[in-house]
Design goal:
Chain A: It is a multi-pass membrane protein. Chain A: Keywords: Amino-acid transport, Cell membrane, Membrane, Transmembrane, Transmembrane helix, Transport. Chain A: Belongs to the binding-protein-dependent transport system permease family. LivHM subfamily. The complex is a heterodimer of chains A (287) and B (401). In chain A, a hairpin with a 2-residue loop joins strand 1 and strand 2 (134-136). Chain A is an all-alpha fold. Helix content of chain A is 74%, strand content 2%. The radius of gyration of chain A is 18 Å and the shape is globular. The termini of chain A are far apart. Chain A has one domain: ABC transporter involved in vitamin B12 uptake, BtuC. Chain B has 401 residues and is α/β, with parallel strands linked by helices. Chain B folds into 2 domains: 35-153 and 285-371, Rossmann fold (3-Layer(aba) Sandwich), CATH 3.40.50; 154-280 and 384-400, Response regulator (Rossmann fold), CATH 3.40.50. Chain B has 15 helices and 14 strands. Chain B has helices at 8-30, 51-67, 87-100, 112-124, 137-140, 154-167, 183-196, 214-222, 234-246, 262-267, 270-273, 288-297, 304-323, 328-339, 350-358, and strands at 35-41, 76-82, 105-109, 128-131, 147-149, 172-178, 200-206, 227-230, 252-256, 277-281, 345-347, 363-365, 385-391, 394-400. In chain B, strands 7-6-8-9-10-13-14 form a 7-stranded mixed β-sheet, with helices on both faces. A 5-stranded parallel β-sheet of chain B has the order 2-1-3-4-5, sandwiched between helices. In chain B, helix 6 packs across helix 7. The longest helix of chain B has 23 residues, at 8-30. Chain B is globular and about 80 Å long. Classes of the chains: A mainly alpha (287), B alpha/beta (401).
């Protein structure tokens, strides 16, 4: 019994790490209507920006998160607006493929600047806390809290701010939004900044829990994508639920299938979801 | 329209130019076209820390030999490619080296998965392949002699891991590893060694691309091992070590030297890696060849792969000189005549070797990685191992045996 409970607890922790980039991915999809695989690079860039702030300037986790958000957001806007904007009329598939290229380029820029070595944040590593036969790391609890706060902030931004409302309007219906005097271009840039920035935040959370190298983002891309599809592409609450579902499924799977196949769980989740409920858990596309 | 009409004269001139172009490579050859060697090492990916230094060592030997007049009166040209520690990228790069650059030999393939993928291209095209990969099945491939390795195979390595765990007082030994070509053989040979002394073993194969291994650690702990053998590469081992530490895992940990290296140690808090043992095939530290390599590349403590590729390029160049021919087949037929000629002159570098070969003396090369004597299969006959332990953030030598 405790084995099962521990696996579920581990899954919640894994889900937290996937959830924040998944929100970023899904926000970009909701407004710009293409899957941006660039999020893998934004995760990595955020992780490295935070690492730089942490090891060079002694920044704590919170300032590192802010810096990661700003840097990854700026790179996201520059990359997607600078390189991909002209491709958008050619359709979602074209842009999606171009984001894979963008991702490779950004990944290699990181590699060029920082090299291939693994980097760890300069933070004390604390042993797990134990209760009722279960164990959980202090850093993980901190991560869950931080991720929770970030998610709350995103929900509040979308619900109450002018920009958030504009984003939801554009996601709902571009033409109607334009008639109402909303500039879709401004909304696109804001969304990209938010989406890439959140991926960067996810990168820091991932990095403080483990370590980073230029492939960190690429390694979790499949799980992030699976979470977004599972939640119903374009739905932000869906992405969060999807992330926890994927995280818990991955950890639970270890009890029945060999650990080598852990990544396959993400694929299986996408396959099952698209077969039986193509709209995802949260149905219609809505921010 | 008339602009595009081709006159007979144009046609003749074009044909003549074309014929000239085709003849050019042969012409160049006659004047001593360079002998081309390829290096295929991991400059990126899990093997990224090793590839660049390996290339440096090969390049240093090539430069040295060129400065002394080359081989067979021809310059040696090195073409360096990145296999990204990835079989697909490795195959693409090998195709380029073989089909476009037409190299005689490819040196340095590191990951066993890359070597396994690249080897058939080499023997098919009669290109010689020298590798530092350790997986057993590699030398069992039908390579027809076109492959040698300077790294001891996994049967030998697995046994050493098992024996060392027993030496440390372990009865229950657990092995964790990602899916690699040597994982099965490594575990089988650990098990053989441990069960022979009445111990027991267990194994877990994990996905090496995950951000955390908490559930895997739970599964390891359920076996209650006295010693844990870590079979992964540096990135996944880093994540695993952190999670083992956080779980309060106290059993002895034994890892490959290439995975728990100085860089990994530096990237983790000291407590996490404290006490981890590492085992690696040992270089011939203290030998003249080793000292020479240190001076040549300016790296004070070259890793085993660097010492091995240094030996590979020396051997290949000497084999070409002895054969009087730079083809892959010539290297295949002559490599053992320069590495282990009975009663040959002992040499430890290509320059001395080339002089001895010019003087028609048989040559027996002993290099920076060891004696470099090859069996029929392409495996090396003998090798020593290096046992180290992490203490206070530094890797300390325990013994070489």
């Amino acid at each position: 019994m405790s084995i099962l409970a521990q696996a579920i607890l581990n899954g919640v922790m894994t889900g937290t790490l996937i959830a924040v980039p998944a929100i970023g991915f899904t926000a970009i999809f909701a407004v710009l209507r293409y899957p941006s695989f660039g999020v893998a690079a934004y995760v990595t860039i955020g992780g490295f920006a935070g690492w730089f702030a942490n090891t060079m300037w002694g920044a704590g986790v919170l300032p590192a998160l802010v810096i990661a958000f700003l840097v990854a957001g700026a790179v996201g806007v520059a990359g997607e607006e600078g390189a991909l904007r002209r491709l958008r009329p050619a359709g979602a598939l074209t842009v999606a493929i171009a984001t894979i290229a963008l991702n490779l380029i950004l990944e290699n820029v990181v590699r060029f600047l920082f090299g291939n070595d693994l980097r760890g944040y300069d933070l004390p590593l604390k042993p797990d806390l134990r209760f009722l036969d279960l164990r959980v790391g202090p850093q993980q609890i901190e991560n869950v809290v931080l991720a929770g706060l970030v998610m709350l902030a995103v929900f509040a931004f979308l619900r109450f701010s002018r920009f958030g409302k504009a984003m939801r309007a554009v996601a709902d219906n571009v033409d109607l939004a334009r008639l109402k005097g909303i500039d879709p271009q401004v909304v696109a840039i804001t969304t990209l900044f938010l989406g890439a920035g959140l991926s960067g935040v996810g990168g820091v959370l991932l990095a403080v829990d483990t370590s980073i190298d230029p492939l960190t983002g690429a390694r979790i891309l499949l799980s992030v994508f699976a979470a977004a599809v599972l939640g119903g592409l374009g739905s932000i609450p869906g992405a969060v639920v999807g992330a926890f579902a994927v995280g818990i499924a991955e950890e639970l799977s270890l009890l029945v299938v060999p650990a080598t196949y852990r990544s396959a769980i993400g694929f299986a989740a996408i396959l099952v979801m698209l077969t039986f409920r193509p709209r995802g858990i949260f149905g219609e596309r809505a921010v | 329209m008339s602009q595009h009409d081709t006159t007979r004269r144009d046609l003749m001139a074009g044909a003549a130019a074309l014929a000239g172009l085709i003849a050019l490579p042969n012409l160049a050859h006659a004047q001593g076209a360079p002998i081309k060697l390829g290096s295929l090492t991991p400059l990126t990916g899990a093997g990224g820390p090793y590839g660049p230094v390996m290339v440096k060592a090969i390049k240093a030997v090539v430069d040295e030999v060129n400065a002394a007049g080359g081989v067979l009166g021809r310059k040696v040209e090195l073409i360096s490619e990145d296999d990204q520690t990835n079989p697909e990228a490795g195959v693409r790069a090998a195709r380029k080296l073989i089909d476009v650059d037409r190299v005689s030999a490819i040196l340095g393939t590191w990951a066993s998965s890359v070597t396994t993928a690249v080897a058939p291209l080499c023997w098919d095209s009669k290109t010689f392949l020298a590798t530092v990969s350790g997986a057993d099945p590699i030398t069992a491939l039908p390579h027809q002699g076109y492959l040698v390795r300077t790294q001891p195979n996994t049967t030998l390595q697995g046994r050493k891991f098992g024996e060392f765990a027993l030496e440390q007082g372990a009865k229950r030994v657990f092995f964790v590893s990602p899916q690699t070509p040597f994982q099965r053989s490594q575990f089988e040979n650990i098990t053989l060694a441990v069960k022979a002394k009445g111990g027991d073993t267990g194994a877990l194969i994990y996905d090496d691309k995950k951000p955390s291994y908490r559930s895997e650690v739970d599964e390891i702990a359920r076996f209650r091992p006295d010693a844990l053998v870590l079979g992964g590469y540096a990135p996944d081992t880093t994540v695993l070590l952190r999670d083992l530490y956080r779980a309060g895992f106290t059993a002895k940990k034994i890892a490959f030297g290439y995975s728990v290296n100085q860089k990994l140690v530096e990237s983790l808090p000291a407590d996490v890696v404290e006490g981890v043992f590492t085992i690696s095939p040992s270089s011939a530290e203290g030998s003249k060849a080793y000292e020479r390599l240190v001076k040549l590349i300016g790296v004070s403590n070259p890793d085993p792969y660097t010492t091995q590729v240094y030996d590979q390029v020396n051997l290949v160049l000497m084999a070409i000189a002895l054969a009087g021919d730079a083809s892959g087949t010539a290297i295949k037929d002559n490599i053992r005549k320069v590495s282990q000629a009975p009663g040959g002159v002992k040499v430890d570098n290509a320059l001395d070797g080339l002089k001895a070969i010019a003087a028609r003396q048989p040559v027996d090369y002993d290099g920076a990685s060891g004696p470099c004597d090859f069996l029929e299969t392409g495996d090396i006959a003998d090798c020593r191992f290096r046992y180290e332990q992490v203490r206070a953030g530094k890797i300390n030598l325990i013994k070489i045996a």
